[in-house]
Amino acid sequence: MAGLTACELDVAGERLELRGDGTLYWPRQGLLAVADVHLGKTESYRAHGVALPDGVMHDDLVRLAAAVEDTGARRLVVIGDLIHDAAGVTGVVRESLL
Fold it and tell me: Are the C-beta atoms of 49 and 97 separated by less than 8 Å?
């Protein structure tokens, strides 16, 4: 997590890390949590005529993969929206998710 800050919290006797990459890590459980990933958001906006740059989803997935590797998490929990909406579920989004 080079260059990003983290904040450690004690919650009911458990150490949690609020990470600068927007994830939460629970070391004892080996659990990394992330909220509102919204895969396919760019594709969905484009389907509705809004121009957005390429690579947004790829960059998000690279950051998420780096968080998993950095923490050594054994489980990933997505809280909130994994997929933005049905319009954004393209072949590229499916392949990237897998």
Answer: no
